[in-house]
Design brief:
Layout (H helix, E strand, L loop, with lengths): L1 E6 L12 E5 L4 E4 L5 H6 L10 E3 L5 H4 L2 H10 L6 E5 L3 H12 L11 E5 L6 E3 L2 E7 L7 E7 L2 E5 L7 H7 L4 E5 L13 H11 L4 E4 L3 H4 L2 H8 L5 E2 L6 E3 L2
Parallel strand pairs: 3-4, 4-5, 5-6, 10-11, 11-12, 12-13
Antiparallel strand pairs: 1-2, 1-14, 2-3, 7-8, 8-9, 9-10
Helix pairs in contact: 3-4
Length: about 250
C-alpha cells in the first residue's frame, strides 16, 4: 500500500493543501477526503482519467468535500469512462449532487461515467471493490466519521476531524498507520484534537506510526515547539504536502 499526502493543512492554511490522502494498492486507488484545494493537487499526479476507483468523505465541511465538483468536471473533460465510487454517510449522494449542481448547473446529466454511492453504518465493516471500510463517529461540530481501511493485509486509520472516541480508538488498534488531525498544541478548540492528546493516545494504545495532520496554520509554524513535544514519541511525525509512505 502506497500513501501520498496530497495535502496536510486545514481550511485556512495558505501554505498547505487541505488534508487529503491518496491510497494506492496493487489494483485500487482510493482518495480520502476532497476539499477545496485537492483537485489541483490530485491532477498534478494523475494523467489517467480512470485511475481513481473510489473516494471516502469523512464529513461535510468544505475543506473535506467541496473539491468534488471540480474533480468530476475534470474527469469528464479527460473522458473518464469507469464508474466512480463514493463511500461515507447517508447524505453523501445528496451533498455530492447538490454541490455539483451549485458549481456547474445542469452538468450532472452530462457526465458520461456512473457515480455509485455506498453508505457505511458506524461499526459495520463493508467491502467496496476489494477494500474493507469500518467507521465510527468522532466528537466534532459536524457529524464526522473516522475510518479504518484494510487492503492487502495492511490497515490504516484516517480521522477526518474531531476528538477520538473509544470507538475510534478501537479502529486504530493494530493499524500500520494512523493519520490523525491535531489542530492545536493543547485541547483548547472544541471539536478538534491536539498534539498533546495524540501523543498521549499513541503512547497509551501502542500505535506503530501516527501522522499529525490538519494542524491549525498559526500552530503549524511553531515547528520547534512541535518537535520538542513529540521528540520522546518516535511513532509521531508531521508530514508535508506530497510526502509518500510505503506500507506492507
Amino acid at each position: 500500500m502506497d500513501i501520498r499526502f496530497l495535502g496536510v493543512g486545514e481550511a485556512c492554511d495558505s501554505q498547505h493543501g487541505n488534508t487529503s490522502l491518496l491510497v494506492q494498492t496493487a489494483d485500487r486507488t482510493l482518495l480520502l477526503d476532497c476539499g477545496f484545494s485537492v483537485p489541483h493537487r490530485f491532477f498534478s499526479h494523475c494523467t489517467d482519467p480512470d485511475m481513481l476507483d473510489m473516494i471516502w468523505i469523512s464529513h461535510f465541511h468544505g475543506d473535506h468535500f467541496l473539491g468534488l465538483p471540480l474533480m468530476l468536471l475534470r474527469f469528464w473533460e479527460m473522458k473518464r469512462s469507469k464508474s466512480l465510487h463514493f463511500i461515507g454517510q447517508p447524505e453523501l449522494q445528496d451533498k455530492v449532487l447538490t454541490g455539483l449542481e451549485l458549481a456547474y448547473p445542469g452538468f450532472t446529466r452530462r457526465l458520461e461515467f456512473p457515480l455509485v454511492f455506498h453508505t457505511i453504518a458506524p461499526d459495520q465493516q463493508q467491502e467496496v471493490k476489494g477494500i474493507l471500510f469500518t467507521s465510527a463517529p468522532s466528537n466534532h461540530s459536524l457529524r464526522n466519521h473516522g475510518v479504518r481501511v484494510i487492503a492487502e493485509d495492511t490497515g490504516i486509520y484516517y480521522s477526518g476531524d474531531g476528538r477520538p472516541t473509544e470507538a475510534n480508538e478501537a479502529l486504530m488498534q493494530d493499524c500500520d498507520l494512523v493519520i490523525h488531525e491535531a489542530f492545536t498544541l493543547q485541547d483548547n478548540v472544541p471539536g478538534h484534537t491536539s498534539i498533546t492528546t495524540c501523543r498521549a493516545m499513541v503512547r497509551r494504545l501502542g500505535i506503530a506510526r501516527c501522522a499529525l495532520v490538519h494542524i491549525e496554520y498559526r500552530t503549524r509554524i511553531r515547528t520547534q515547539q512541535i518537535r520538542e513535544m513529540i521528540a520522546d514519541t518516535p511513532a509521531l511525525f508531521v508530514p508535508e504536502d506530497d510526502d509518500r509512505l510505503s506500507l506492507s
